[in-house]
Amino acid sequence: MTTTEACRGLRRIVPVDDAPDDAPDDATIDIIAIHGLGTESPRTWEFKKRNGDGVVNWLSDGDMLPAALPKARIYTYDWNANYFANAPVQTLLGHADTLLGLIAEGRGSQTRPIIFVASCFGGLILAEAIIRAAQEGSAYKHILLSTVGIVFLATPFQGSDAAKQARWQVLVKGIMGEQASDKLIQDLEQKHDFVHQRVQKFAEIANAKAVQLPLSCFFETRKTEMLRRILSPGWAKRLSGSVTRKILVTESSACLHGFPRQGLDATHSGMNKFQGPECPNFKLVKDTVRKLAGDASVVLKLRKNSTVKGHWIVPFGRNKEFVGHLLKKVLPSRDEDDCQRTAIEGLGGVGKTQIALETAYRIRDVQPECSVFWVPAVDATAFENAYRAIGQQLKVPGIDEEKADVKALIKSALGRESMGNWLLIIDNADDEMLLFGDTALAEYLPFSRKGSILFTTRNHKLGLRLVESGNHIIAVEEMSRDEALKLLGKNLKSSQMSDTKSNNALLEILTNLPLAIRQASAYMAKEQISTARYLKLCKSSDEDMVKLLSSHFNDRHRYKNIQNAIATTWLISFQQISDHDALAADYLRFLCFLAGKDIPHSLLPPAGTLETVEAIGTLKAYAFISQQNELESYDIHRLVQISMLSWLDGKGERQEWTVKVLERLNDIFPWPKHENREEWIRYLPHTQHALQLRKRTDDEEATASLLSKVGESFRKLGKYKEAEQIHRQALQLREKVLGKEHPHTLTSMDNLACVLDSQGKYEEAEQMHRQALQLREKVLGKEHPHTLSSMNNLARVLDSQGKYEEAEQMHRQALQLQEKVLGKEHPDTLTSMNNLASVLDSQGKYEEAEQMHRQALQLREKVLGKEHPSTLASMNNLALVLGSQGKYEGAEQMHRQALQLSQKVLGKEHPGTLTSMNNLANVLGSQGKYEGAEQMHRQALQLSQKVLGKEHPRTLASMNNLALVLGSQGKYEGAEQMHRQALQLREKVLGKEHPSTLASMNNLASVLGSQGKYEEAEQMHRQALQLREKVLGKEHPSTLASMNNLASVLDSQGKYEGAEQMHRQALQLSQKVLGKEHPSTLTSMNNLANVLDSQGKYEGAEQMHRQALQLSQKVLGKEHPRTLTSMNNLASILGSQGKYEDAEQMHQQALQLREKVLGKEHPDTLASMNNLALVLDSQGKYEGAEQMHRQVLQLREKVLGKEHPSTLASMNNLALVLDSQGKYEGAEQMHRQALQLSQKVLGKEHPRTLASMNNLALVLDSQGKYEGAEQMHRQALQLREKVLGKEHPDTLTSMNNLASVLDSQGKYEEAEQMHRQALQLRQKVSEIR
Predict the structure, then answer these.
(1) CA 606, CA 574: separation in Å to the nearest integer?
(2) DSSP secondary structure string for all residues of 1103-1131
(3) In the 8-state DSSP scheme, what is residue 396?
(4) Principal place where this protein is found (predicted)?
(5) Are 1001 and 987 in contact (CB under 8 A)?
(6) Stated pTM of the model
(7) pLDDT, tens digit, for every residue of 117-167?
(8) DSSP string across 17-32
(9) How many other CB atoms are there within 10 angstroms of residue 544's CB atom?
(10) Helix, strand, or coil here: 452?
(11) What is the CA radius of gyration of the chain?
(12) Residues sharing a CB contact under 8 Å with residue 517, sequence separation 6 or more, in sequence order
């Protein structure tokens, strides 16, 4: 045992002699001093003199406290103030029992008065000791009754004044410094409310008439230097400042309300040590202790005279397992001028009776002279019987006479001042008629200024009427989770609560209601089941839940003749509401069918304003509903809903109210549009809930109509799967109720087909649209507007499948009929015109599409106005077809106009506005204005996430577009990351086979290819192709696009034969499906020509490029961007054949046209300039080539940025032409710069990076730097073998270059061997092809 451990406990320090503590002496009082955190006695009480001249201990030095109180015995109580490993707060307060035990043992039979001096946290230990000594039956009650005073020295009753999350951290660290216990701090923060309750309890006991304990609180007035607690003195001095100085325990924390307080001129650590007898601080403390000692006899006398016990009539024993809220004060002495009235209100089962019961016992503990009477107000008989029992105990004359007016006698008896203090508890004061009706029990409530009445009630209105002021009503708050867990485990074994997740989930269902928890706990204890099993029973069905809520259990703390089940408890309230407020009862019936949270007031059936206010007030008064702050919406208790539905079942009213609720919802739920989005979004969860609760209804047409609205709501939200499910229910119900050919049934069929189309289920959508069209033609006629709508919808799904000819034919037919039936200017006719123009655009019939969009726009401006949303849609569509033709400036101008009008008319966050923003961003990208495009796409994405949600299909489309523009800028990593995110979300939201999901897969594969990740790109393109063949069919345009993309990535890998074969297949199918002159067909032709070029099949490539150019000039026009691309490709193949003059002439022509059409700084224009420079280089026109390459490089740096892949390509090309002119140093410098940037931007293994490495090695070779050239060629070869494969053409080029540099160094054998290997591999690859 260490010295410190040996000194712990209660130790007498004055007088210091060998006499035992119980030996006779002349001492008249005991003083016990208790130290605080992180210290021990005697150090904590000692003042260190300067220059090491010793210490002053004010408790033991003869000229200090012993001189002031010469007949006092002085003790110190030492406790372990540094160990807080487990349950620190409980450990801290647990020292109270040790203190009490040691005092009792040390004092023996002595009855001397006691004065305590408690420093810092020692005061919390002492307060807990007083509480425990005051408990009923405590063996230490004599210690409490012997205590005549307490001096608190900076005890932190409320922690520090720091922010809530640090109120104890600052204090403990300020006291203990680096030795501070994090566990103690954390536990104090978590148990702050518990500590506060214990302090309040102590204050109540000290104030109690039976105790009347004198206290004096001292607080510090000087700030503590915080850094000194955690740093060395030198560092603390250097860093000190006002911000590091703080009063640790402020006056508000150190002092208890209503008790004397004094400040000491000291820091926190100086509150318990004084430098000598003349120290002002010591004098203040000494005088206080001396006064307490002088008043000891008076305190003991008053205490003895006040120990008369009052009367006690409480029908229940104390609930020792009680957890939860405690009422603050209902003591009669709280208001000396009135008979105090207080009401505890809350939902049935929330624990009001238990709170009242604990209040009764607490008052008995702290004020035993106060009488406590308990009266149940469940009915008139119980009330009168309780009054009679009171009269019998008080021995009221005449109380037992047969005709005695018992209630009047008790009212009179308790009204006499001679009765003394009393508390009357009226439990279950819920029935207004009982209290204020014919029986008028409220008239018999007594009045006495020495009395206090406490009511428990479920009814706020009644509670207010009883206490007459909202300030006297205490609403019972929900139990904390810790309290609820403790209550749940009261009767259970640990094995029954081993599943923490189930424990919390069960309490969530029971909403921490004490009665429901006790009922559940009793059931589990009886049936010996776990919380997990009980939770499963609760979730199995509402019927099972009701049975569990209705199961009776024994509770000796509740009335024996009243059912204890929570559901039964509420049924009493339901009946009371039904009897007294019919509209409130109807509202309660209505609300039990809705979702429990945020129920809009507007959903309630209409009634008079005053009646509605009163009905809502009634439901709020019974705590069945709560109103959200400042919102016209309500929450209803989930368990109340379940119980209410059971009540309706029992009364045979559920079917009737199901119909009423669904009819009301159908009446008020609008057809979903963006303009009323806020309204239907709020109604949607409640409508869903009501529909789920329906078993059958007498008005199934209203149900079907409501289902249609819900289905459309889900479609608007992009939740297509849910929309399909709901629309199927609506269709089935209408077929059953109205028949398969009823117009409403056909509307449901059309709605379902549209949502199938949205999911990419084109075949089923087409089939259903055809069926709807046929039935509408039969039922309504071929020219009915609904029939024409079906025709239009069918045409749209044909368009989605790439069946353009049939779609065009059907749109033309619909347009002709609508012009005939509705007129040429009818909005529906103009919609058909717009749809026809769109399918013409899909076919590449741009001129006719443009003409028709212009016509639709003009007519919509005339008929609907320039700012109508449909007019803006036409403007947008016209801009799109202009973009398809490469008329980018006109397209941009029109998109900007559409966006501005859309923002003005629809608002900046309308989905239509976001679509305009997206389209404008796309046309900016088409012009190479990538920064503006990216900025606009980011803005559109953020707004879409805000307005539509992060997983809405339109949001995912915005994400996809942003990823595309990132890829266009060479920001491949960001593009890949975003494409992956879009793909994952589309798979989740739309499904793995949705066309949009497959588009994301295709885009991700493309950006992988751009990074040289060819194997992964090929694998993904193959997967996309297979899925598109399965979902869309082998001949769908999107399938052909996948085929083309796969062929391109094969080409990039040098798999030319497979690429050529696939390009030929794609071309043949495109010619068959889209036609020989469709723009996509021309793209396939161009791609095939490119792969022929890669194989050296120049004649075939030239022939195909010429054919593609001629067709493009015919179909798209001579100046269309795609036509100019064909011209550029043809020029390149001419250059590959050495036809440099023709190539130069054609590149010049392409450059001039691109400058005219696209502008001098468009990326495509710069590509033409680059290609022209290359062909000049090929002709030996080095100066012109160099000049043009420099110009391209400068423009690309300006337009695309210095790190864009195209900029790096220009840098590389310029270096090559410098090399060709023998400007080796400049060439080498530029190649190195290009290589470094390529490694940074594209990665060290990207094919373009390896090309840069190869070019740098070549220029080193040209300068005779053979070793460096050889080393770099070897590195390039190894990486190309790894990335591209040993037989890739680029790999063979590296092999050949390495062999050449070996030859230059005279390493002839190795060079020959490598040349032979390269030749063999080229022959092998050629033979395979």
Answers:
(1) 21
(2) HHHHHHHHHHHHHT-TT-HHHHHHHHHHH
(3) -
(4) cytoplasm
(5) no
(6) 0.60
(7) 999 999 999 999 999 988 865 778 889 989 999 999 999 998 776 655 566
(8) SSS-TTS-----EEEE
(9) 13
(10) strand
(11) 45
(12) 479, 484, 487, 488, 507, 510
